[in-house]
Amino acid sequence: MKVLLDTNVIVDLFLRRASHKAVSTIWSANKVNLLNAYIVASSVTDIFYIINKYGSKDDARYTIRQLLQHCTILDTNRAILVLSESRNGYDFEDDVQIASAIMHKIDFIITSDRKGFRQSPVSVTAPADFVTNHL
Prior knowledge:
By secondary structure, the chain is α/β, with parallel strands linked by helices. It is built from 7 helices and 5 strands; from the N terminus they run βααβααβααββα. It has a 5-stranded parallel β-sheet, sandwiched between helices. Helix 1 crosses helix 2 (20-31), helix 1 (7-15) runs parallel beside helix 3 and helix 3 (41-54) runs antiparallel to helix 4 (57-70). The radius of gyration is 14 Å and the shape is globular.
């Protein structure tokens, strides 16, 4: 099963915010190959910035090392940006993630903020719902 982890769930996990317990279960399932976790390359810099700002630089660097070790990083290329722009959704960053999920045949997008994903043709779920229904 291929899951795309939205920026906010990665931040929740590594800063131990709201949904971190459910995301921790998903992260553990990924580490033992019960699922395959993906993130969009353009999210990596955002994740570093947010964790550096609200945690520390060491926390941010640790997070990036974990992502590089345990996730498949999806390229953000011209085709994905063109598809993203054509979606004309609520949030361009979310459209990039949706386009990446479409192009890479992702089964689920896991996010703590569903409003930007309302028009996604890829199934969108909250971390706790994913744990309850799929793990």
